[in-house]
Design a protein that fits this description.
Elements: H1 3-15, H2 17-28, H3 42-49, H4 54-62, E1 67-72, H5 87-97, E2 101-107, H6 113-116, H7 125-140, E3 147-151, H8 157-167, E4 173-176, H9 187-198, H10 204-214, H11 226-236, H12 252-267, H13 278-281, H14 284-297, H15 303-313, H16 320-329, H17 344-350, H18 352-362, E5 371-372, E6 375-376, E7 382-387, E8 390-395, E9 419-424, E10 427-432, E11 442-450, H19 453-461, E12 469-473, H20 478-481, H21 490-498, E13 503-507, E14 520-525, E15 542-546, E16 551-554, H22 558-563, H23 584-589, H24 602-606
Parallel strand pairs: 1-2, 1-3, 3-4, 11-12, 12-13, 13-14
Antiparallel strand pairs: 5-6, 7-8, 9-10, 10-14, 11-15, 15-16
Length: 607
């Protein structure tokens, strides 16, 4: 193992000793002696089986088959999740083949950040992660299941499902994706049209045509944002079958992988001889493997929030320093949009996850001894294919099919993973530099302070931003307005950068998983709404932004800066409407961004 990776893993293990032990005690106390439903009263069991087909009812009431609970995030508005409509039927048939029962235990909400981006509904986006975790827990709380299948893909959905699956960690859990849509309009052309529209050079009809050609059918959006970073994570953490992440929907192989996932879930219950409870399967090595995969592929900055929250559900404590140290030694092996012009389908065709995992294992950056649902991660360097209608696996390609998309560890795109911990008098946050040109990573410029993203756009449209500046967009944290993504600022800031101005963004909010060429320090904590340093920044303050060194400084005397009265956060109508008033408790109780912005205080309850 790489010494730095081993050191971070050991440090996480030591830091988490007590909380991890408490967690393991909790799930081990619930290890079943027999089928979970057998502890139910006759009345309980009658209710659990009443809606089943005759065969499943007979097995539930008295047979010897394990029962698999399905948690689904299906809805037919969300392109990535629309394919899940027919999965329960596929899974029920596959379960019978394996001598098991499958029941839909519950559904969870799945909102689309692509639909809500820049809209009021985006203020519920981050909180939906914890709602999904709680909704999953309600489905699994019937406590009649011996394993679980989790159907999900996108942004907050997978982290929410993982949190719940870990709290039911005595159950084996297999995650079942739907795959990306086939490639549409090339990404550079989509970006070009967006920027032309922002400049008023093309009309709305042309913009809509370009967007519809990009997002055109069922499946995950093909850029490498949070959704596809999720699928990479599930694979390197061992919660998928090998090679399941990026097979397109509606194909024979995709259906075969869903059947195979069901067979596997039936095989790893406590009643068999290969029991793989999720809470023991996922450990410190799994979490570090996930962070390594994120850095090696230039994945979404949203996972600086989600990975600590997911790890906490298993009693594992992860910090931003862990991310930074892993990033510093993990080479960038993939360039997928927004880090390059190609999409995840091109990545998959060039060698995909099997090639990536083999390279990281070979370089000592990934721990092959960590366990997955299909066996040790050392066996995840394979890819699936159909042989006579059955899924089998073969070794991944030894050479990349396209070195502009996917490279070996011996010849990376860069020597590090491109995520920086940013710290200084303005707090702590993260910066993704893998898509930022080196010439744009360091600058010193006066601050222009905004309290909404709309205010920044209005200043741009008024022609007030044609200069060097650091945009400080504050009151965008979880306690203020739910920490919406600020991806809608990307075209505006991109235009200004293309005009030759030195600009950067500093915010206590989030950027999209598709954040790209704009230098930014995001997730700044403590947030301005809780009196964080961004509340003291004033227009004209000189800010030194250095994402190479990971420093964010303000050229104001420290005593003068500290003596300033923080700008007050004034909640306005943005906290009401579209159900946002129902989430006031979430805003009050949200944790800090650098610890995952979660509602849940697992450590406090278990330590």
């Amino acid at each position: 193992m790489n010494l730095a990776i081993a050191s971070v893993t050991d440090r996480i293990r030591l830091r988490s000793k007590d909380t991890r032990a408490a967690y393991l005690d909790m799930i081990r106390a619930r290890r079943p002696d027999g089928f979970a439903r057998m502890k139910m009263t006759e009345g309980n069991l009658a209710h659990a089986s009443a809606g089943c087909a005759v065969m499943e009812k007979a097995e539930l009431l008295g047979g010897g088959w394990p029962n698999i609970g399905i948690i689904t995030s299906y809805n037919d508005m969300l392109s990535a999740h629309a394919p899940f409509e027919h999965y329960p039927d596929i899974i029920r048939r596959a379960a019978r083949e394996a001598g098991a029962i499958a029941q839909v235990a519950g559904g969870v909400p799945a909102m689309c950040d692509g639909v809500t981006q820049g809209q009021e509904g985006m203020e519920l986006s981050l909180f939906s992660r914890d709602v999904i975790a709680m909704a999953s827990a309600i489905g699994l709380s019937h406590d009649v299941f011996d394993a679980a299948l989790h159907l999900g893909v996108c942004d907050k959905i997978i982290p929410g499902l993982v949190i719940a699956a870990l709290r039911f960690g005595w159950l084996p859990s297999v995650f079942v994706p739907a795959g990306p849509m086939p490639s549409g309009l090339p990404n550079p052309e989509k970006v070009r049209i967006r920027q032309l529209f922002a400049e008023g050079k093309v009309d709305r009809e042309q913009l809509l045509r370009a967007e519809a050609e990009s997002y055109h059918t069922q499946g995950t959006c093909t850029f490498y944002g949070t959704a596809n970073s999720n699928q990479m994570l599930m694979e390197v953490m061992g919660l998928h079958l090998p090679g399941a992440a990026f097979t397109n929907p509606g194909t024979s192989l995709r259906e075969g992988l869903t059947r195979a996932a069901t067979h596997r879930a039936a095989a790893i219950t406590a009643q068999g001889d290969d029991y793989r409870p999720m809470g023991e399967l996922i450990d410190e090595r799994s979490v570090v493997n996930g962070i390594v995969g994120l850095m090696a592929t230039g994945g979404s900055t949203n996972h600086a929030l989600h990975i600590p929250a997911m790890a906490a559900a298993a009693g594992i404590q992860v910090t931003l320093e862990d991310f930074a140290e892993i990033s510093a030694v993990t080479p960038l092996l993939a360039r997928i949009y927004p880090n390059g012009p190609s999409d995840v389908n091109h990545f998959h065709a060039a060698g995909g996850m099997g090639f990536l995992v083999r390279e990281l294992l070979g370089a000592g950056l990934m721990d092959g001894g960590a366990q997955g649902v299909a066996g040790p991660i050392s066996g995840y360097d394979r890819e699936p294919y159909l042989d006579g209608g059955k899924v089998v696996w073969r070794a991944a390609p030894e050479k990349s099919g396209d070195l502009e998309i996917l490279r070996p560890a011996s010849d990376p795109f860069s020597e590090d993973g491109g995520l920086r911990l940013m710290s200084g008098p303005l707090g702590r946050g993260v910066s993704k530099v893998s898509a930022v040109k080196p010439a744009n990573r360091v600058l010193e410029a006066p601050a222009i302070v905004f309290e909404t993203q709309g205010a920044l756009k209005a200043a741009f449209e008024a022609g007030k931003l044609d200069r060097d500046f650091v945009a400080v967009v504050r009151f965008q944290g979880p306690a203020a307005n739910g920490m919406p993504e600020l991806h809608g600022l990307t075209p505006v800031l991109g235009i200004l950068q293309d005009r030759g101005f030195k600009i950067a963004l500093v915010t206590d909010g989030r950027m999209s998983g598709a954040s790209g060429k704009i230098p930014s320090a995001i997730h700044m904590s403590p947030e301005a709404a809780r009196g964080g340093p961004l509340a003291r920044v004033q227009d004209g303050d000189l800010i030194a932004f250095d994402s190479e060194k990971g420093t964010l400084d303000i050229k104001v005397d420290s005593e003068t800066f500290a003596s300033r009265e923080p700008a007050p956060f004034r909640p306005n109508e943005s906290s009401v409407g579209l159900g946002r008033e129902m989430f006031s408790y979430f805003r009050q109780m949200a944790g800090t961004a650098d610890s995952g912005a979660s509602q849940f205080s697992f450590f406090g309850e278990e330590s």
